[in-house]
């Protein structure tokens, strides 16, 4: 089944130095009368990767952004229940993707309320103290996110990292958007390299960037 790719803020991604690292399309699962297909694209911060490689010789993906459109084909009985099931599977897939990329010791963090309602022309805010209800509406409904703190080893560097993924409703299915970024450098080949790497790690900016990309994707 052909699934349209998620609509990402391509101009922003290009201007900020992101590039496509992976793309995949296929059928996630088929339960007879309903087939669920996906079209996913993964971006990495190539500008950050190249800057760190030039300065330290260490090469790898330091932060990534993922968007996956999940669409239903065929009649959809009890769409609310199916939507919940698909959202849970999407979050499981994101967690699996983190593990495949070398993240470990994943610890679930607070849920964040992320609104996609931009009627006033500016991204809506988030509230870290607000839990999120079910997302069964259109794109203006709050997304239902899951956050993780985790460890990650990249080459000879051990990082503290944070990841966030949100699933929200679309006209024909669900949209998973998320990503991960470093928050601190725990270990490096030597103290000088550790300090150089820490100069590139800006958790507050990385979080703001990720939330902006999540909101801008449809």
What does this structure look like?
Helix content is 29%, strand content 39%. With 218 residues, the chain is of the alpha+beta class. The protein has one domain. A seven-stranded antiparallel β-sheet has the order 1-2-3-9-8-7-4, sandwiched between helices. A two-stranded antiparallel ribbon has the order 5-6. It is elongated and about 60 Å long. The two termini are 20 Å apart. Mean pLDDT is 83; it is low at 118-140. It holds the Pfam family DUF6517. Residues 117-146 are annotated as: Disordered. Residues 132-141 have a biased composition (Acidic residues).
Radius of gyration over all CA atoms, rounded = 18 Å
Structure classification: alpha+beta
Name the shape in a single word: elongated
What is the succession of H and E elements?
HEEHEHEEEEEEHH
Q: Enumerate the strands of the largest sheet in spatial order, edge to edge or round the barrel.
A: 1-2-3-9-8-7-4
Largest sheet properties: 7 strands, antiparallel
Helix content range: 25-40%
Number of DSSP-assigned strands: 9
Number of helices: 5
Round the mean pLDDT to the nearest integer and report it: 83
């Amino acid at each position: 089944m052909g699934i349209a790719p998620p609509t990402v803020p391509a101009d922003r991604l290009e201007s900020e130095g992101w590039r496509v690292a992976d793309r995949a399309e296929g059928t996630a699962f088929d339960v007879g009368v309903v087939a669920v297909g996906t079209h996913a694209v993964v971006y990495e911060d190539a500008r950050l990767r190249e800057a760190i490689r030039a300065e330290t010789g260490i090469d790898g993906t330091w932060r990534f952004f993922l968007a996956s459109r999940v669409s239903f084909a065929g009649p959809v009985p009890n769409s609310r229940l199916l939507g919940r099931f698909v959202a849970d599977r999407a979050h499981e897939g994101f967690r699996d993707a983190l593990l495949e990329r070398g993240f470990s010791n994943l610890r679930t963090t607070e849920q964040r309320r992320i609104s996609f309602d931009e009627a006033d022309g500016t991204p809506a805010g988030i509230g870290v103290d607000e839990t999120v209800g079910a997302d069964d509406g259109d794109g203006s409904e709050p997304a239902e996110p899951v956050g993780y703190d985790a460890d990650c080893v990249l080459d000879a560097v051990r990082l503290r990292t944070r990841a966030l993924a949100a699933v929200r409703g679309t006209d024909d299915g669900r949209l998973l958007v998320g990503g991960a970024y470093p928050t601190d450098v725990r270990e490096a080949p030597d103290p000088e390299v550790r300090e150089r790497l820490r100069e590139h790690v800006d958790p507050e900016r990385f979080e703001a960037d990720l939330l902006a990309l999540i909101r801008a994707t449809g």
